[in-house]
Amino acid sequence: MRNWEKLAFKSEELIAKFQNKKVEEIQDVDLNELPEGKERETTIKTRVNQSFFRSTILSSYNSKCCITGLSITDFLVASHIKPWSKDTKNRINPHNGLCLNSIHDKAFDKGFLSITPDYKVLISKYFVDYSKERAVNDFFLKYQNHKIELPDRFLPSQEFLEYHHNHIFIK
């Protein structure tokens, strides 16, 4: 198994070294906002790795939401399939990521939508009561069973998608 966290941080260290800078400088980390001591190092490393994960996911999906195709990067999120808090070994693993727009990321995190292991969008039955609302149809219901746009590399793990469907999705 690959150590994605170590790879991400090592990658950022090498970029910083090449630029004759510190990692925190190239990542725009405000050292005054971080705790002192060992926690400081962990916080910087976590922020650097989160940045690496976002860059990797957005790049893999050509900076487009895999559901809607939206390409405004300010609205795109590198979403974890298996939540950050549930699987420390796969936090930075790009096979645990989807590029989603902000609203679909929130819905995915809360279990209102899921992606099947064959990469189709599933919409929760929760929305049935709201099906007369135009926004619900436009943002959610019309994507039911549509295949997502797959990334150029780092295909989402079917194992992680099954986890999301079985443990997070509201059926």
Characteristic terms for this protein:
171 residues, mainly alpha, two-stranded antiparallel ribbon, two-stranded antiparallel sheet, 39% helix, globular
Question: How would you sum up this structure, described in words?
Answer:
- It contains 6 helices and 4 strands.
- α1 crosses α3.
- It has one domain.
- It is mainly alpha-helical.
- β3 and β4 form a beta hairpin.
Please summarize what this structure is.
The protein has 171 residues and is mainly alpha-helical. Helices cover 39% and strands 9% of the residues.
Order of strands in the sheet with the most strands? 1-2
Count of all domains: 1
The proportion of residues in beta strands is: 5-15%
Total count of strands: 4
Order of helices and strands: HHHEEHEEHH
N- to C-terminal distance: 32 Å
- Principal-axis shape equals globular
Weakly predicted, low-confidence segments: none
Characterize the largest beta sheet: strand count, sense, and whether it forms a barrel.
Answer: 2 strands, antiparallel
Mean pLDDT: 83
Write the topology of this structure.
Elements: H1 4-18, H2 23-26, H3 38-60, E1 76-80, E2 97-101, H4 102-110, E3 113-115, E4 121-123, H5 134-139, H6 158-167
Antiparallel strand pairs: 1-2, 3-4
Helix pairs in contact: 1-3
